[in-house]
Amino acid sequence: MSREEDRYRQELEDIYAARRERFRVLVCIDGSDESYLGLKYASRMGAHRADCDIILLYVRPIDQGLHSGGLQVRVARENMLSWGLELPGIRRLRKGLEVLVGEDELKEEWTAETTTTTVDGDPLGDNKIEYRHPSGRTIVLKLKVAPDAASGILDQYELGPYNLIIIGSGRRGRSRLRATLTPSVSEKVAYHAPCSVLLVRDLVAGQGHLICVDGSDFSKDVVMQEAMIAQRFPDPKLSAVCVAKDDEGVPEAERIVNEIRDMLKSELNFDLRGTYVRVGDPVEQIVDAGKDYSVIVLGDSGKGTMSRILGGGVSTDVMRLAHNSVMIMR
Amino acid sequence: MGLNGLSPKAITQGIDPRAMKTGVRRVVRAGRQLNFYYFWEKRWFFIAMAVGFGMLQLPLPGDLSREGMIVLTMSVVATILFITEPVPLPTVALMIVVGQVILLGLDSTNVAKSLMTDSVLFIMGSLMLAVAVVKQKLDKRIAWLIVRLTGTKTSYICFGISAVSGLLASFIGEHTVAAMMLPVGITLITLTSDDPKAVRNLAAVLLFSISYGCSVAGIGTPSGGARNAIMIGYWKEFFFDPTDPESRKFLIDYVHWMAYAYPLFLVQLPFVTMILLFTFRPEYRNLSRAIVKLRAEVDMQGGLKPGDWIAILIFFLVLAGWITASGEIGMGTVAIFGAVGFLVAGLVKWEDINSGVNWGVVLLYAAAISLGVQMKDTGAAHWVSEHFLDVLKPFGAGEGIGLWAAVSGLTTFVTNTMSNGAAVAVLGPIVLNLATAAQESPIVIGYITAVSSAFAYLTVVGTPACTIVYASGYLKTTDFLKVGWKMCIMSIIVMILGAYFYWPILGT
Question: B248-257, pLDDT tens digit by residue?
Fold first, then answer.
């Protein structure tokens, strides 16, 4: 038994090690326009590269038999399946696949493998279809059952790992208290996911990323990571902004952005499109400066629930207030 | 800031800074071990427990016994948990059982006995029957029957779906019919257009025709829903005295219930279609394209097979048993007999029944009814109802039609926040005592409560049929609000008019 366990563990470790070598993007699909915009963005980011895996995830809430008067919803679902009807999640994932690959190309060039994992109390369980391209690229459609969407997405990370989670974000402007006490699915994922998260909001592709820097070591790591992501796009456009609290801080802010520019040039041979220094409240300035970009990129402020209520955090506040998409880097 | 985040002021307050530092470290370390997110997610559980603890510390109101206060506390805690659902609902049932033994000091065997009544047996049997009926795959034939009767016009099909769903749901439960008819609705939608956005309103009209058709029908007979059986159980427990022949009127049988409630369902039916067509104007006025394809699918099934005929026979035997023999052997026994029939005939596998029924519901209703009986026995229900009546009187709602409207409004509110069976289980003891205190007929007030508990049109979780059609993924939660309030007003008006003009003819 223990030998089998060891072998199984070794197999898992090998899989994880192989996955760490690849760029893996988890795109959460819920049928909204935002989620498909996010998928298109993921496609621009990696669809043409051999080291990229795109995983489309749809989370179905687990059946609540109590609300259906004691008859499990699975009975209704089974009946739907026997009619040859697809469940909502499958339909939405297929639409996502069409965004990534044309029907003819899929038939001719890709191979498919289907896996099903039994989940107690659900007729379908977790389902996975993995499409593989000879170049090494993979696209996975995953239909997952979980108590709620956020738990399902975070659980999926554990099966990963992933480099980036892309999720549609609801409306902007929720108060700090509400966002902390009753976080939406995208906010929960952004707070708790161990990897970087892109919250998609009115995403217009092709306008580049704006990264916010503050001179810390963590901020430098974030810039390096982001530059590597930006390089994946056909036409990488990355600008950096540093916000000084007052006029006295401007020279220091200028030094920081210049340092970042030089670091990217020397280590990655990557040119920044522009560097900016702004003066004022960091959140207001970043939200305003980021309006003209596709995505605002920030490092995670790493705050807990209490400190989010009391003091907020630049990244979480920008996430709430930004007009456009925000990427939280970890 | 000083050592490890301590302010210099704290350090200079005469406490050994090193001890303080260690103490803070401990707290910080403990904080890392604790998962505060867990406490936040379960906050309503802890709030409910705190409310319960607080209530038990309060001095007893003059006319309420200690036991009454404990049962009242348990009811309040259970209600908070029913509404907020911080823990799986069957947990609440288990807590009620434990609470009755530990807090009330009742003998555990007596508590266990109080859990199983004919009503609970009936709920259990009906659920097993529901799974068995859905498994017979008669849905395509029913769908074809509907479209043969209605033709291809969208409005007629909607009425046909509501009417047939309703007629079936009134006997075999709304959840059964919703599960059977859901594929019919979705097939009609997908055969009309592959693009969900192009058939948004059509989808809403067709699916709501199923769910609301079933919901308004659930009141029609005792087998329409668990809440009806719960109310029948309460009438018997509270008012029937074997030594008093007068009290036999509280033994409500199947036919008696139908006489009161069935006409209310039939009157509501046309309004359902009207409200739906008025609220969501369907994109297609004619579904002939979808009907042709549906017909082709039904033709492929061929004629009725012997197994189908046996299933139909068992179903009608059960129905006949409920109508003619439920007074003598109990409705629960008839339902169980039906389940046995399906199993013996090999029409359904036990594994299907076992996985298709949520047994937690049976446990939940059993515990809720047991608590309801304790509410009556300890005088808690009487105490609450008297005080509630004092509140209603200044508004002219202390008697007659005002009281009916108040009870109906209260039930409609509660049933929209929790499952309708739980709503009747929680409210039943209070409103029946309210009827006695206000010198109204407990039968009329009981019917008003049971019927009003079907008016949970506003939320996805309100009625079983709504939950099931929502699982299709075609509806939004806001759709329920958009049309639900109109349905609530229509249903309350129909019921009050029925109670005022029709029920007196039956002699209450």
Answer: 888 888 888 8
Task: Provide the residue count of chain A.
Answer: 330
User: H or E element: which one contains B456?
Assistant: none
3-state DSSP call for residue A122? Answer: coil
What is this structure's pTM? 0.73
> Would you call A79 and B355 a contact, using CB atoms and an 8 Å cutoff?
no
3-state DSSP call for residue A59? strand
Cα B353 to Cα B124: distance, rounded to the nearest angstrom = 11
Contacts of B34 in chain A (CB under 8 A): none
Distance from CA of B450 to the nearest CA of A (A): 15
Distances (CA, A) of B71 to B48, B64, B336, B371: 14, 11, 32, 7
Q: Where are the beta strands (DSSP E) in chain A?
A: 23-28, 52-61, 111-117, 126-132, 138-146, 164-168, 196-200, 209-212, 238-244, 274-279, 295-299, 325-329
Distance from CA of A10 to the nearest CA of B (A): 30
Beta partners for A166?
A27, A198
Which one of A70, A82, A88 has the shortest CB-CB distance to B137?
Answer: A82
Chain B residues closer than 8 Å to A31 by CB: 473
Please judge whether B173 and A305 are an interchain contact, meaning their C-beta atoms are less than 8 angstroms apart: no
Per the CB < 8 Å rule, is B123 touching A70? yes
Per-chain mean pLDDT for chain A: 79
Give the E-state strand segments of A153-217 in sequence order: 164-168, 196-200, 209-212
- Please give the ipTM for the structure prediction: 0.71
Q: What is the pLDDT of residues B454-501, one digit of tens each?
A: 888 888 777 788 888 887 778 888 888 888 899 989 998 998 898 888
